[in-house]
Amino acid sequence: MSASLLFDLLVAGGLIVLVGLLLSTPNRFKAIVLFICTGVLMSLAWVRLDAPDIALVEAAIGAGLTGALLLDTLGHIESREESSTTDGGGAG
Amino acid sequence: MSVGARVALVALLGGLLAALLWALSHVPARGVGLWGMVEPRLATAGAENAVTAVLLNFRGYDTLLEMVVLLLALLSIWSLHVSPLVCPAEPAGHVLRFGASLLVPLMIVVAGYLLWAGAARAGGAFQSGAVIASAGILLLLADSPVLGGHALAVRVGITLGVVVFLGVGLACLMAGYRFLEYPSGLAKSAIILIEMTAAVSIGLVLAGAFAASRRVLMRGYGPREEA
After folding, report:
1. Does residue B124 belong to the interface with chain A, where contact is any CB pair within 8 Å?
2. Nearest to residue A39, comparing CAs of B90, B188, B130?
3. Tens of pLDDT along A21-80?
């Protein structure tokens, strides 16, 4: 088994494992972090597929920008949930 | 979901997996796609990188539409007037501000390199714009304004990519060619002009989408109210 084949199998297997973890976790923050990791690994996969342009965009936008936007949204959702539970009192 | 439905779903997905694996085993080792059509025309396309040539010359119209879509998405996000304004809970610490002051100039240089290298290697306007957007986000998180006080700078910066792209296309029309059909010999200059403005615009649009409001993009997050 050549080194490049081993590397490809590692990247592919890692992607599947990461996505499985990402979809099965109930913690939103953990899911977003796993999403960013999946984006980074995906950009490695694009390099192995001889598509360096797509790899650059995947790393910058898929992992970086989308991750930042998701974390922003998470903060917004959680602050709104916090304020609604303090306002709603026992009504929950 | 009942047991029978689950079994049927697993069988269906297993069949789909088998079909995909069979199809994968028949894919040729080297892609045969469009290379045969692109390569003969690459010399006159204005860029040596096939991806850049396709994106900005052969399929330039698609790229123009993509940039319009980005601009529309930004305008939609800004028109939501997100409230209360999303911002980090605490002001940026010293480490973040110092790190940003080191990293942002580097990121601008990297973006410029990616833009220039896009002609012959991997790179191009979108990659460069993405790095500029990341620099903008880092500036925002480090409690620094991105564009300063002038609303005109924001408006010009965001629309410049689309306007220049359209302008080049219309100039081709007025010179007697078809829309976005660059005159021979001017393809390289047209691509460089479009790419430079597109990179700046894409960076500002994506950073503005993160900032979620024009005021934040111009002046940063500003002082926090005590919770």
Report:
1. yes
2. B130
3. 999 999 999 999 999 999 999 999 999 988 888 999 999 998 889 999 898 888 888 887
CA dihedral sign of residues B67, B72, B78, B80: negative
CA distance linking residue B173 with residue B61, whole number of Å: 14
- Residues B180-216 pLDDT 10s: 888 888 888 889 999 999 999 999 999 999 888 887 7
In the block, residue with structure tokens 């601009």? B71
ipTM of the modeled complex: 0.81
- Contact state of B210 with A65 under an 8 Å Cβ cutoff: yes
Residue B63 CB burial class (10 angstroms; 0-12, 13-18, ≥19): buried
Query: What's this model's pTM, rounded to 2 decimal places?
Result: 0.83
CA dist B60 to B53, B86, B99, B168, Å? Answer: 9, 36, 38, 11
A61–B130 C-beta distance less than 8 A: yes
Contacts of B82 in chain A (CB under 8 A): 76
What is the pLDDT at residue B227? 41
Close Cβ partners of B125 (under 8 Å, ≥ 6 residues apart): B55, B56, B115, B118, B194, B195, B196, B198, B199, B202
Q: Distance between terminal CA atoms of chain B?
A: 45
Interface of B with A in 52-111 (CB under 8 A): 82, 84, 86, 88-89
Token pair, residue B1, equals: 């979901």
> Quick check: B158 and B136 in contact, CB under 8 A?
no
